[in-house]
Amino acid sequence: MKLDKATVGKRYAKALFELATEVHEEQAVYEQLLVLRQVFIEVADLGEILSDVRLEMTEKKAILSALTPSFDPLIQNFLAVVFEYNRMDDLLLIIDEYERRFDDKQGLIIGTVTTAVELTAQQKSAIEMQIAPLLGYEKAQLTEQIDPTIIGGVVVEANHQVVDGSVKSRLEELRMKLSE
């Protein structure tokens, strides 16, 4: 059975995170993964190139060996496993999932807050302080989005959860109740 990319990302990230936790290197691994992510963003096709069956194995290994010397042995070994199982094109998903696990352990939830108008720094901070405990975290880091169609209020999306306090959704609820 072929696994979807999200499942692959979660499995590899979980294994790496557990190993990093075991050796008390979660922070160091996280920092190196951020560097690796930047490389894979700047060279957009790198994952596909390293997973492409049309490219000779020696050529792919040469690319990988040029990429890995600056990383700690833990990351080097991890990349070797990902490479061996031909999952280099899933590396960004793996890094994203590791980051989510790392943030979870830090008590941090990352998400978005959508409002009809731009928030002040104080308003954004207040929302972050209120939403974190509501979702079971110590702190929240929210990226702002502006959507005038919500009319007013806020919509917070984080960790596959949505807290919708928008005027638009309240009006839709009222409309449904009135139509019953």
TrEMBL record:
Subcellular locations according to the entry: Cell membrane; Membrane
One GO location term (cellular component): plasma membrane
Record membrane topology: Peripheral membrane protein
Keyword Ion transport attributed: yes
One Pfam family recorded for the sequence: OSCP
Main location: membrane
GO MF annotation list: proton-transporting ATP synthase activity, rotational mechanism
Family in the record: Belongs to the ATPase delta chain family.
UniProt-recorded name of the protein: ATP synthase subunit delta
Organism in which the protein naturally occurs: Enterococcus sulfureus ATCC 49903
Protein encoded by which gene: atpH
